[in-house]
Please model this.
Amino acid sequence: MGALLVELMTPMTLEVTLAVQRELEARAAEMDTLRRQHIERTRHDAELARRRYMKVDPDNRLVADTLEAEWNEKLRLHTDVVEDYERRAPEEAAALDAETQQRVRDLAEQFPRIWSDARIDVRERKRILRLLVADVTLVKAEMITANVRLSGGATRTLTLERPLPIAQIRKFKSDLVAEVDRLLDRHCDREIADILNERGLRSWEGKPFNLKKIGFIRGAYNLSSRRQRLRDCGMLTTQEVAERFAIAETTVHQWGRQGLITKVYSDNLNRGLWDIPHDLEIVKGRPGRNAVPARRASITVPSTEQDSL
Model:
């Protein structure tokens, strides 16, 4: 609708409109003359009827009643014609003076800039639409046909493609879902959102991706999370590491800081996953004055007789 109004509100189209307006004003002047003449005829007919009634012999009641009824009918007709003229006159006398015509021309030059100005509120655009457009009739088929009737009486027909259902609009493209699935092998949700935003990708709303949107994609398309994928690869939780080595969970984190074990993942809840080889053995440390730190147990390979030789 906005594009249609910008197309119509041009100096050329408004000059044509002003020319049509001048033609309508000329025709209205002609109609005004004809109506005034009609009023004069009805007034004259009523005056003749009055004179005939005034000349009749009062004793001839039948003729007098007939002439009186005719006079009243002529008076009623004259009154109706005058009232109709007075009702129509203000509407048809709305001629555009030179100053108003120039303001219309100025509007044609300014309208595209005004309509496209980002500072114009949506409510103001709606007010402009209500002033310029009388109504719009939509016919919904394979395509949508919009029959637009402008305030001046002109009509326009627009053919538009039917919008997609909201569920399909909100549906993420298959290549985006596949890329998120691929990135989940090495990145968490927040990192994936940052990667997609750096590539200039946006959601169906045209907004940047965030942690919540990536989580929605995972849930909607049944994609395993980064944490679950690591769990499937054998990564252990802090509790499981503590149970395996019969130590406290705080000791697990201490071993991690010492580099004895490796944390491979930590989510936004600070839940860690640890890469613990099956053959890993750690000798626990001893606290106290003669403290001994924990260490990895050395693995010695028994030497063969040939090696000893």
Q: What stands out?
A: Residues 299-309 have pLDDT under 50 and may be disordered. The chain has 13 helices and eight strands.
